[in-house]
Input
Amino acid sequence: MTLIIILAGVFLSVFLMVTLGEKFGKPMTDEQQAKYSKIIPILVFVLIIAAIIRAML
Output
């Protein structure tokens, strides 16, 4: 029963995110997209290294 409640909560929250994102979200400009495409790979690399270090300790 607990699993059903958790799944219902997850689906409800995803439904709300999609609905509100479509209603209030705005498209990114090309400049914003270029800026994020430079930063995101670096952040992912740092997070992977941090996870490896954390797993070692």
The helical segments are 2-24, 30-56. The longest helix spans residues 30-56. The radius of gyration is 18 Å. The mean pLDDT is 95.
